[in-house]
Amino acid sequence: MTASTVVHLLRHAEVHNPEGLLYGRLPGYHLSETGRSMADMVAKALSGRDITALLSSPLERAQETAAPLADALGLTVRTDERLIEAANIFEGVALGAMFRTPRHYRHFWNPGRPSWGEPYADIIRRMRGAIDDVRAEARGHEAVLVSHQLPIWTIRQAAERRRLWHDPRRRQCALASVTSLTFEGDRLTSIGYSEPAGALIKPPGPNSRGSRR
């Protein structure tokens, strides 16, 4: 029989970010109080599943999202650099200022690459590598990879054979959401999506473009 394996891509929970910055890969950004509650809700939702591997981006917000689930499952969180947030030249810039500052315009010449950050093709390559490795490790069981909105959405777009250029406001990848990839053997057969902490998600603000990464 062909082994069925599920790889869950868990986006980190809400971050304490009172300045409203695009923090990207910058260190020192931790979960907010609401974010910690979100992580607990995800752990409760997934604790009964047959999860045998748990890996996370090295950034603090991802590690902190993974921690309650690790405790619930009795697993150790392993760090995988391939799950890190996408590189972006606007790290440290207020989201509202990105599109109102003329000197930033030169970075928007190619949204299909995108010209302001890590190429989509590179994101796909590293995320696919992380997924393939954990799928082989957890064959016949389930695994969780804790990552960030853009890497998760980009690999999903690629898996569904959709164009990679997109409007960030249309991403289906809310805070603490779970995108589930089901494989039969080595073949991807379905993609599911759920929001275990959806009740705690705040409506986006007027300057939001998707989320704060």
Automatic annotation (TrEMBL):
SUPFAM superfamilies assigned to the protein according to its UniProt record, in alphabetical order: Phosphoglycerate mutase-like (SSF53254)
Gene3D superfamilies attached to this UniProt entry: Phosphoglycerate mutase-like
Domain of life: Bacteria
Residue spans crossing the bilayer: none
UniProt-listed SMART domains: PGAM
InterPro entries tied to this protein: His_Pase_superF_clade-1 (IPR013078), His_PPase_superfam (IPR029033), PGM_Phosphatase (IPR050275)
Protein name: Histidine phosphatase family protein
Organism: Sphaerisporangium aureirubrum
Lineage start: Bacteria, Bacillati, Actinomycetota, Actinomycetes, Streptosporangiales
